[in-house]
From TrEMBL:
Molecular-function GO term, any one: kinase activity
Keywords carried by this UniProt record: Kinase, Receptor, Repeat, Signal, Transferase
Pfam families: Stress-antifung (PF01657)
Database matches in InterPro entries: GNK2, GNK2_sf
Recorded superkingdom: Eukaryota
Protein name, entry field: Gnk2-like domain-containing protein
Signal peptide: 1-26
All copies of domain Gnk2-homologous, residue ranges: 30-132, 133-241
Originating gene: EP1
Length: 262
């Protein structure tokens, strides 16, 4: 009887540990940054929640071909504008996984916020009831540069070049990466991206304005950092943090019928 009890106890412990590990592995990884706008909020079973459910269910199927997802539904104050953008060098399967993880994680962290945004290194997701390039975030690398003037001069040259390349990228992808030699034989790596629905001029203006803000943020004098916005973003480091090749275009997902009014 004692031997049988021990066998049952062993198998129960094994199954319990397996279930815990499986549940843990299934959880999306944490964002490196997220914003839950505290006001306004929505109530359970409200029209906004139903529209949000509809939008986020449809969003992963709206890939434009280069990792831009966009789905809107509803009217007036119950309208939901949702979009996600993958980094332009990301493989399609990794992009889709990142967007799906973002949807799960953001709703977990911001359970009743009408406007929320979550950032992974590979993608970001935002939903709101209004358009606008809000929620700017500046995140620095904590290491200081040894020569601020020379570093900033090289960085500016790199960002200006990448800004022009990204802005001219066309209707499917506005993304550019590159590098330049900095002070003390260091290499500065940069990445810039806009959502592809922006015109060439608007993309260029968005990136230029973001780069111009570096001296007034905690990025100034640092060897790396990023500014994140809803419609454009950039990052720079003294190590390579992106893939050298950009993904090839994949066919758009199946077309989505026009969403019903919320």
């Amino acid at each position: 009887m004692l031997i049988l009890f021990r066998k049952h106890l062993f198998w129960f412990s094994f199954i319990f540990i397996y279930l815990i590990n499986t549940t843990t592995l299934a959880q999306p990884p944490p964002f490196f940054h997220h914003i839950c706008v505290n006001s306004p909020t929505y109530t359970i079973n409200s029209p906004y929640q139903r529209n949000l459910d509809t939008a986020l269910s449809a969003l992963p199927t709206t890939n434009s071909g280069f990792g831009y997802f966009n789905f809107n539904t509803g009217q007036l104050n119950d309208r939901v504008i949702s979009f996600a953008l993958c980094r332009g060098d990301l493989e399609p399967a990794l992009c889709t996984n990142c967007v799906n993880d973002s949807i799960v994680k953001l709703r977990e962290l911001c359970p009743n916020q009408i406007e929320s945004i979550g950032y992974y290194n590979e993608c970001f997701l935002k939903y709101s009831y209004e358009t606008g390039n809000t929620n700017e975030v500046a995140l620095p690398n904590l290491q200081n540069t040894s020569n601020v003037d020379r570093f900033n001069g090289a960085l500016r040259e790199l960002m200006d070049r990448l800004r022009g390349e990204a802005a001219a990228g066309g209707l499917l992808l506005k993304f550019a990466t590159g590098n330049i030699t900095g002070p003390d034989f260091s290499t500065i790596y940069g990445l810039v991206q806009c959502t592809p629905d922006l015109s060439e001029q608007v993309c260029s203006d968005c990136l230029e304005a973001a780069v111009n803000r570096i001296p007034n943020t905690n990025l100034y004098g640092k060897v790396g950092g990023r500014i994140l916005q809803s419609t454009c973003n950039f990052r720079y480091e003294i190590y390579e943090f992106f893939n050298q090749t950009t993904q090839s275009i994949s066919p758009p997902s199946r077309s989505i019928p026009q969403s019903p009014p919320g």
